[in-house]
Automatic annotation (TrEMBL), chain B:
Coiled coil, from the record: none
Keywords carried by this UniProt record: Cytoplasm, Endoplasmic reticulum, ER-Golgi transport, Golgi apparatus, Transport
InterPro entries per the UniProt record, alphabetical: Longin-like_dom_sf (IPR011012), Sedlin (IPR006722), TRAPPC2L (IPR044760)
UniProt-listed Pfam families: Sedlin_N
Keyword Endoplasmic reticulum attached: yes
UniProt similarity note: Belongs to the TRAPP small subunits family. Sedlin subfamily.
Source organism, top-level taxon: Eukaryota
Claim: Transport is one of the keywords in the record: yes
Source organism of this protein record: Callithrix jacchus
Protein name from the UniProt record: Trafficking protein particle complex subunit 2-like protein
Subcellular location: Cytoplasm, Perinuclear region; Endoplasmic reticulum; Golgi apparatus
Gene3D superfamilies in the cross-refs: 3.30.450.70
GO annotation, cellular component aspect: endoplasmic reticulum; Golgi apparatus; perinuclear region of cytoplasm
GO process annotations (BP): endoplasmic reticulum to Golgi vesicle-mediated transport
Length: 795, 145
């Protein structure tokens, strides 16, 4: 049977009717006879009644439990409103009027409706209500008992509140009466061991302690009205039955108590909506629960395994189905064990259920286990987050904390709907984010940063130089500085990356660092550069570098390449530092792993790559970057242009080349020379001369970039364009204001620029590919010549 | 998406089976039953290798004219079988996998409930046990209904 959601008025009405029918005062089952009378009084056809009984499950169970009774009442209302009888209609039909029961019940109904709908009802009206219920029985059965009941109840009717009808008014009196009579529950408990918490405690095998605890709990409940709902409400049925069954004296006492408690209950119920705490656990209750927890599990921070919890709660004599439902609600982290909070929630739900409360569909907020804030049900908004946190006390919350907030948001739904309980997957994603974060951070570390995808097309010699540089520098401390030195303008010790960026863009790097989107790139670039320097010779993995989307700033790479070209032509290894600075700014592309790879390739791609590297002669350390960069470009282009085969070839070739270095040496020299020539040539339409001087195109753009000189730019067509774009990008990037508002625009602008740069670079890549092919051919021919020249060596 | 979802225990008796009520449910029951053979076949074929390496998702067990049957088996030999309408071409393999993953998670939640005896039917007619499971299955089947 689906859960039933009742409005407050309905709840009260139904509970009263239940109490009326619950002549045996079991609080759980109503007498079938009474229920049948009630249904007949609803003036529904018999078959409808039968259908209702079937739907609510009474036929199945053979009796009317409280939930069944409520469902039946709801169905009566549904039927009376003319809606078709369905199980779903219980909850789907909104604004259902209260079920109407004719005959003598009309008065009751009207009064009930009136009383429930308004708070203005005075107690006197309830007195009038009292006769009707017995009157009902009287009309139907005319039994003597009813007669006797009636006078009694009529007498009781004088009481301010009818036991059946939970008076909702008398607010002024309720607190006092409630408080005063709250003590009575204890007495009432003694009278009726079944009442209230009595039956509940007993099944738990703690008759004495339970009842006493229950009493204590009950009395303790007096102060906080909202929390007494379950207690006081429990009072009502027993007291009502008392009224009907017991002598007047008792009735008076209990009636008064009932009245007071019922009044309070009603008021509490009304107030509960504002407090939203019908499920809140009082301190006494909680203390009791904690004590119970200790009996099972001495460690309060430990768990109660499922089996132990099952035994414990089975003692409550609730049906297994309900217990499993309670478990589903309370085991928040779905780990098969109960923490203290979960246990208290489960215990509270059991208590509520024993007292006649229907189990909710979702775990009430006040019962949600909280890891951080105990008993803190105030913040609803954060509750999902807290719940999520607390829901997994055993798991490593701290590690998940970064991603938990988002996770927590989904936890309530997760728990309730159990649809996406893929916290593990989310956790893994969080770990991924963490790792990504690390990767982003790492480059920023100047010591480790190297991976600046400097498109250093290192010839073998350059690679060696690079390696030497690496060995020399070790942690690349010098590297950062060297580039800095080289670049006079924006040399800054603060951040090599920044400096490199500056180099690249020729602007202050602050803009870079400020812009979120670009920050990582420049950092990466810088780091790539440095890393490349250090890793250049050592990362064979570049063969399959994660093709990290050429992140932003191909311009960076370009700039670095420019720098390198220039530096190479101008200086020797000493100036590598300075050159190094340039490259960092360059290419975002850089996957640090890639950077070295390309660098390795560089030697093979001597021509094209060399140009890059040669342009920055000083950047021996950069060379790898340079090579890397061009390699990247080539690689990226190859990926883009589907020239991966070439790349693959290059990669393996690069490696062996690097290692061999012999054949490359000659090439290297030649290339350096060509590079220097290139540099000197400078303005020549280098790009055009790709076929002739492979070095030309790369260095030119690189040079331009570094220098940020317009004179160089126009000369190289594509490269200049590229560099121009790159420079522009770089320039713009740093200038990106730190304000978030501008960042977006800047990001978009940078995206555009990046795209443009991408296209430019793609073109360059294709050209370089061509150059590479030419170079390879040259190499082959040279090697053949070598062999021919040294025939005796082979012997 | 799914037209029928079934959970079969290790001993090959159904723990839970639910179909969209539009058609003759018996037909789906029969399809699921026959698919068990295919599941066993796949298990034995892959099982020669380490069980750990065996992937849980079995993929398309067999297609019929109107339906496709997908299978998924857990490490405890609990099988999930899902029947999907063939006309629902939008369903990709990844989606089926995710649906099975959700099924598995919900089943795990049911298992975690100490009041659930392994081997019992997953009943969601009542207030509790398996209700979440049933809701989850409903969410998977609603689009078809």
């Amino acid at each position: 049977m689906e859960g039933l959601t009742l409005s407050d008025a309905e709840q009260k009405y139904y509970s009263d009717l239940f109490s009326y029918c619950d002549i045996e005062s079991t609080k759980k089952v109503v007498v079938n006879g009474r229920v049948l009378e009630l249904f007949r009084a609803a003036q529904l056809p018999n078959d409808v009644v039968l259908q209702i009984m079937e739907l609510c499950g009474a036929t199945r169970l053979g009796y009317f439990g409280r939930s069944q009774f409520y469902i039946a009442l709801k169905l009566v209302a549904v039927a009376q409103s003319g809606f078709p009888l369905r199980v779903e209609s219980i909850n789907t039909v909104k604004d259902l009027p209260l079920p109407r029961f004719v005959a003598s019940k009309n008065e009751q109904e009207s009064r009930h409706a009136a009383s429930y709908s308004s708070d203005s009802e005075n107690q006197g009206s309830y007195s009038g209500v009292i006769p009707p219920p017995p009157g009902r029985g009287q009309v139907k059965k005319g039994s003597v008992t009813h007669d006797t009941v009636q006078p009694r109840t009529s007498a009781d009717a004088q009481e301010p509140a009818s036991p059946v009808v939970s008076p909702q008014q008398s607010p002024p009196t309720s607190p006092h009466t409630w408080r005063k009579h709250s003590r009575h529950p204890s007495g009432g408990n003694s009278e009726r061991p079944l009442a209230g918490s009595g039956p509940f405690w007993f099944p738990f095998g703690e008759a004495q302690s339970g009842s006493s605890a229950g009493d204590a709990v009950w009395s303790g409940h007096s102060p906080p009205p909202p929390q007494e709902n379950w207690v006081s409400f429990a009072d009502t049925p027993p007291t009502s039955t008392l009224l009907t069954m017991h002598p007047a004296s008792v009735q008076d006492q209990t009636t008064v108590r009932t009245v007071a408690s019922a009044t309070t209950a009603i008021e509490i119920r009304r107030q509960s909506s504002s407090y939203d705490d019908p499920w809140k656990i009082t301190d006494e209750q909680r203390q009791y629960y904690v004590n119970q927890f200790k009996t099972i599990q001495p460690d309060l921070n430990g768990f109660i395994p499922g089996s132990a919890a099952k035994e414990f709660f089975t003692k409550s004599k609730l049906p297994i189905l309900e217990l499993s439902h309670i478990w589903e609600l309370s085991d928040f982290d779905k780990d098969g064990a109960l923490t203290l909070d979960e246990f208290c929630a489960a215990f509270h739900l059991v208590v509520a259920r024993k007292n006649g409360y229907d189990l909710p569909e979702k775990l009430p907020e006040s019962l949600m286990p909280k890891l951080i804030d105990l008993e803190d049900s105030a913040d609803v908004g954060d509750q999902p987050g807290e719940v999520g946190y607390s829901g997994s006390p055993a798991e490593a919350p701290p590690s998940k904390s970064p991603s938990m907030p988002s996770l927590n948001q989904t936890w309530p739904e997760l728990n309730q709907s159990s649809e996406q309980w893929e916290t593990f997957s989310e956790r893994s994603s969080s770990s991924q984010t963490l790792t990504q974060f690390d990767s982003n951070i790492a480059p920023a570390d100047p010591d480790t940063a190297i991976v600046h995808p400097v498109p250093i097309r290192m010839t073998p010699s350059k690679i060696h130089m690079q390696e030497m540089e690496l060995k020399r520098t070790g942690s690349d401390h010098t590297n950062p500085t060297s580039p800095l030195l080289v670049k006079p303008s924006d040399l800054s010790e603060e951040n090599k990356i920044n400096s490199s960026v500056k180099f690249a863009s020729g602007n202050t790097v602050d803009g870079y660092s400020s812009s979120d989107s670009f920050t990582s790139d420049p950092e990466q670039i810088g780091s790539n550069v440095t890393r490349q320097r250090s890793h250049s010779g050592t990362s064979p993995d570049n063969t399959a570098p994660p093709p990290p989307p050429p992140r932003p700033q191909p311009s960076h790479s370009r700039s670095s390449s420019l720098d390198m070209n220039r530096t190479f032509t101008v200086t020797t290894g000493q100036q590598q530092a300075g050159v190094v600075a340039h490259p960092p700014a360059v290419p975002p592309r850089p996957q640090p792993s890639q950077a070295p790879g390309p660098a390795v390739h560089r030697p093979v791609d001597a021509d094209g790559l060399m140009t890059h590297t040669s342009t920055s002669p000083q950047q021996i350390p950069e060379q790898p970057n340079f090579a890397d960069f061009s390699q990247f470009e080539v690689f990226a282009a190859s990926n883009v242009n589907e020239e991966q085969d070439d790349e693959a070839e290059k990669h393996p070739e690069v490696l062996p080349v690097e290692k061999a270095s012999d054949p490359a040496g000659s090439l290297r020299v030649a290339k350096t020379d060509s590079k220097t020539e290139e540099k000197t040539a400078a303005s020549a339409p280098a790009n055009v001369s790709k076929g002739t001087t492979p070095l030309a195109p790369p260095p030119k753009p690189v040079r331009r970039r570094l220098k940020s000189e317009d004179e160089l730019r126009p000369e190289v067509d594509e490269h200049t364009q590229k560099t121009g774009v790159l420079a522009a990008v770089l320039a713009s990037q740093p200038s990106i204001p730190r304000s978030i508002g501008k960042d977006k625009k800047a990001i978009q602008a940078s995206i555009r620029r990046n795209k443009e740069t991408n296209t430019v670079l793609a073109r360059l890549n294709s050209e370089l590919q061509q150059q590479l092919k030419d170079v390879l051919e040259e190499r082959i021919s040279l090697e053949v010549q070598l062999e021919q020249l040294r025939p005796f060596s082979h012997l | 998406m799914a037209v029928c979802v079934a959970v079969i225990a290790k001993e090959n008796y159904p723990l839970y089976i639910r179909s969209t009520p539009t058609e003759n449910e018996l037909k789906f029951h029969y399809m699921v039953h026959t698919s068990l053979d295919v599941v066993d076949e796949k298990i034995s074929a892959m099982g020669k290798a380490l069980v750990d390496q065996r992937e849980l998702y079995l993929g398309l067990l067999y297609p019929t004219e109107d339906y496709k049957v997908y299978g998924y088996v857990t490490n405890s030999k609990v099988k999930f079988v899902m029947v999907v309408d063939s006309s629902n071409t939008a369903l990709r393999d990844n989606e089926i996998r995710s649906m099975f993953r959700k099924l598995h998670n919900s089943y795990t939640d049911v298992m975690c409930n100490p009041f659930y005896n392994p081997g019992d039917r997953i009943q969601s007619r009542f207030v509790c046990l398996g209700r979440a499971f049933d809701n989850m299955v409903t969410s998977m089947m609603i689009p078809v209904c």
